[in-house]
């Protein structure tokens, strides 16, 4: 009898442990469906007002207002290192399902030129959301009226013309200009690029200390409206739709066979649970398909460019190969 009581007690312990283990497994999402049970944090690895910040805040706004995600979503800015500070923060949140970040080509570029130990392979791609494009602007009274005028002068003496951007050398604002200039026949190894990461690139063009402003389309609209600058070209395949930006000519239509896509999407920490990845994939797809986010894309001149986690990873691997080749040519690889 004593032996049976002991055996029954042992079985009760086993069943209790198993039940508790199953409960923990379900809560962490390691099997079956997963839904968030506490607030979600989205990191914008830059200051307020830029492309990462705007994309993160607009996504959080629609997720909340459209009821796509029930939990609170907070957007936190962690600027520094062209994104590296924010990436290091997320790298420390391994396996978390509650810490996301937004990124774009710098997560491929910055590690390749040796400015960050973290690259896209160190994180969990969730979904790409949009395609943004480069704009190349000059002061309203500049002598160039199109990209061909500019590049003809650059072919004669590339270093005589200063290009300014907000990113570091070898990162996005630099590379997007290089890619278009190279297709136009400019010796890109001699281009003079100046980095102004404090956001003073436009001021430099307006006061004459720089000639060309390499930036995003959305960053030029208000100054074009004010008559202070003119956009010589954009890097999209076709003309963009929307007030003001519909007047910006593409490099393609000016006979320059090149484009540059500033894709922008969301990532999770290393080793995020598969169930959480599936959840976010589906939610970002709902976001992309919503009319509210379509209106935001139109407002900022963004194109729809949704990719799920698997497609996004393959795309990023291809981007890395292409960019590595360009940085090697410029002598900017680590």
TrEMBL record:
Domain of life: Bacteria
SUPFAM superfamilies: Periplasmic binding protein-like II (SSF53850)
One Pfam family recorded for the sequence: TctC
Gene3D superfamilies in the record: Bordetella uptake gene, domain 1, Periplasmic binding protein-like II
InterPro entries registered for this protein in UniProt: BUG, Bug_dom1
Entry-linked PANTHER family: TRICARBOXYLATE-BINDING PROTEIN, UPF0065 PROTEIN YFLP
Family membership noted in the UniProt record: Belongs to the UPF0065 (bug) family.
Protein's UniProt name: Tripartite tricarboxylate transporter substrate binding protein
Organism this protein belongs to: Virgibacillus salarius
Lineage of the organism: Bacteria, Bacillati, Bacillota, Bacilli, Bacillales
